[in-house]
């Protein structure tokens, strides 16, 4: 049958159609990359720049705080303020003005009265009003942060500060309406620190501050650090600004006349988001007279209120120019590629018709399962290489299929091995997590126990003293003498419980030394009879003959094993077998000590809680013995475990490196 549409035409059309589809898709993709990706990356850079600006701001606060704390910790400062020696305070504070540009540097006594102002020495004796940071410093707290001072507060510290703080507000497009056209308050970086006398009491306080109104040093430092002076057509690419409320008080954004745009306002949309809602703003915003990619962050005052914002931004024009350039380059490349593809597709269509058809038929046979098929190589070009590659492919398919079968079997074996290893690691991880949780719980309970013991000791001492006095006052044959004795016994019992709490809470350092475990255990067995009857108890010693000396705290280890042996004897009651077993632990060069009894055992429900502080099944116990023992063994880098069978007995195993 005659062919209505030859393979050559099909190849040509087939080559051209994808080319034009690719042209359309690439155009859309390019526009998407330009409009979305570049803008997104630019906004992300602005967000990162805001983080850098925040760190620069915090570093400035840290420098002020560090300088003030060094001065406040000076013993000479405490002596001078306590004695109200103004010449001495002056000699201490005046040199600080040369180390750091401080607009305010003042010392007050413990009642808040001004002793010395470095910038206004003639004014002293007054009490600054509405100064949260001074109140906190006089309570013993060091305070550093940002706050707003009224014109009266600024004038009291330095007359020139009111003029520096004054800013004429300039209305800008998109800004919110404002009642006052002048900003007189000042935003300051402030730090206040207590001055303690030799007894640790607050003798007074020092506070210093740097006024940010019309002070462009910080914003210029941020711009130079973050943007390194990069310009676009003579205009700075990056800018930084400090806002008090909605008013620029320090900035390197320039107005149309070339001056810094101090006094211009924040747009209403950004003001509502940053100042009123206390949230960051990252996005496109109109700044003074141009569009910027911006990031704003609230500046929070000492009391947690939003008093202003920190801004960084980059000109949007440079990214618009970048988009246009990329669009132009992309269009030229795609147009040239289309012309070249049109020419090449016609040539390729002519040469590929016959070989491609033959290859198509052979590939169908391969699909049906035939192997080792062969096609004649008629040319030494890519088609010839394709034919040769097809021949190699058919020969390799059978070989690859057998290899894949072998690899599948090997992979299954590896998966099984890895699964087993993973299960083992998961079990170890769960055990480690349980140990960490137990250690954290013991640490928290230790803090609580220390506080409880401390609070109980004070009233307990009063009760004990009154009981002793009452015993001295009552004659021996008095009718209430017995009740007083019972009260005294219960007070002693409380004192013993408080003592256990203090032992549990105290993190006592180990006194390392050489310890003979066998000698330690024998010593405990020799003395345990003074605490509990041992007549009906059979002691079995299964000591390892080659057990080496270990390094540890002998007193604390004696406490651990005394507690374990005493618990075992008490559990057995009047009759039983106490078995002490020791053996070496080669990897750790340590030992393992087992304490076993033939008592009634411990139920599964109690076994999980046995090392929990204050858990006990005894009528008279405090429940701290095993918790203390657990902490001591963990301090030695060891481990303590328990196993029990109800009706047969309990075994504690202690491993010590």
TrEMBL record:
One of the Pfam families matching this protein, by short name: sCache_3_3
Transmembrane segments: 12-34
Segments forming domain Histidine kinase: 451-657
Entries under InterPro entries matching the protein: HAMP_dom, HATPase_C_sf, HATPase_dom, His_kinase_dom, HisK_dim/P_dom, HisK_dim/P_sf, sCache_3, Sensor-like_sf
EC number(s) per entry: 2.7.13.3
Keyword ATP-binding: no
Record's subcellular location: Cell membrane
The protein's name in its UniProt record: histidine kinase
Taxonomic path: Bacteria, Pseudomonadati, Thermodesulfobacteriota, Desulfuromonadia, Geobacterales
């Amino acid at each position: 049958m005659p062919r209505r549409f030859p393979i050559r035409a099909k190849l040509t059309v087939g080559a051209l159609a994808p080319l034009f589809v690719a042209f359309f898709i690439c155009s859309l993709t390019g526009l998407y990359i330009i409009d979305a990706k570049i803008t997104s990356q630019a906004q992300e850079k602005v967000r990162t720049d805001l983080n850098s600006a925040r760190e620069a701001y915090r570093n400035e606060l840290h420098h002020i705080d560090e300088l003030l704390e060094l001065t406040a910790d000076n013993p000479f400062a405490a002596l001078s303020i306590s004695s109200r020696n103004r010449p001495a305070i002056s000699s201490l504070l005046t040199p600080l003005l040369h180390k750091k540009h401080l607009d305010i540097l003042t010392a007050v006594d413990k009642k808040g009265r001004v002793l010395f102002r470095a910038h206004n020495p003639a004014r002293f004796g007054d009490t600054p009003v509405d100064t949260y940071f001074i109140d906190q410093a006089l309570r013993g707290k060091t305070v550093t942060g940002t706050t707003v001072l009224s014109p009266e507060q600024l004038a009291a510290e330095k007359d020139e500060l009111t003029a520096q703080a004054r800013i004429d507000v300039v209305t800008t497009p998109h800004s919110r309406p404002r009642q006052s056209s002048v900003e007189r308050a000042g935003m300051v970086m402030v730090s206040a620190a207590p001055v303690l006398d030799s007894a640790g009491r607050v003798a007074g306080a020092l506070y210093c501050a740097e006024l940010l109104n019309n002070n462009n040093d910080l914003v210029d430092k941020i711009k130079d650090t973050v943007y390194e002076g990069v310009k676009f057509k003579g205009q700075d690419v990056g800018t930084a600004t400090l806002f008090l409320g909605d008013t620029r008080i320090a900035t390197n954004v320039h107005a149309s006349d070339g001056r810094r745009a101090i006094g211009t306002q924040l747009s209403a949309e950004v003001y509502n988001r940053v100042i009123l809602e206390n949230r960051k703003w990252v996005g496109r915003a109109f700044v003074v007279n141009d569009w910027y990619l911006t990031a704003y962050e609230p500046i929070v005052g000492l009391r947690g209120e939003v008093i202003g914002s920190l801004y960084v931004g980059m000109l949007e024009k440079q990214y618009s120019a970048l988009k246009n350039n990329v669009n132009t380059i992309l269009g030229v490349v795609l147009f040239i590629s289309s012309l070249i593809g049109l020419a090449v597709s016609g040539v390729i269509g002519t040469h590929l018709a016959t070989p491609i058809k033959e290859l198509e038929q052979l590939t169908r046979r391969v699909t049906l399962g035939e192997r080792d098929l062969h096609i004649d190589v008629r040319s030494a070009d890519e088609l010839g290489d394709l034919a040769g590659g097809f021949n190699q492919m058919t020969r390799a398919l059978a070989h690859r299929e057998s290899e894949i079968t072998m690899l599948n079997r090997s992979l299954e074996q590896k998966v099984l091995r890895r699964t087993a290893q993973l299960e083992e690691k998961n079990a170890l991880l769960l055990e480690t997590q349980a140990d960490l949780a137990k250690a954290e719980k013991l640490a928290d309970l230790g803090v609580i126990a220390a506080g409880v013991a401390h609070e109980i000791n004070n009233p307990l001492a009063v009760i004990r003293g009154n009981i002793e006095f009452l015993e001295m006052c009552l004659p021996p044959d008095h009718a209430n003498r017995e009740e007083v004795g019972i009260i005294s016994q219960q007070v002693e019992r409380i004192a013993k419980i408080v003592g256990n709490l203090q032992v549990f809470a105290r993190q006592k350092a180990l006194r390392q030394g050489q310890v003979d475990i066998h000698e330690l255990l024998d010593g405990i067995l020799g003395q345990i009879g003074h605490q509990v009857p041992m007549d009906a108890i059979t002691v079995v010693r299964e000591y390892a003959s080659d057990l080496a000396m270990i390094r540890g705290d002998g007193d604390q280890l004696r406490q651990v094993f005394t507690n374990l042996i005493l618990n075992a004897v008490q559990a057995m009651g009047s009759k039983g077998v106490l078995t002490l077993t020791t053996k070496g632990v080669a990897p750790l060069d340590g030992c393992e000590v087992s304490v076993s009894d033939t008592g009634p055992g411990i139920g599964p429900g109690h076994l999980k809680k046995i090392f929990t502080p204050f858990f006990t099944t005894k009528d008279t116990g405090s429940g701290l013995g095993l918790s203390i023992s657990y902490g001591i063994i963990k301090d030695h880098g060891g481990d303590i475990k328990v196993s029990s069978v109800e009706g047969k007995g309990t075994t504690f195993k202690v491993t010590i490196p």
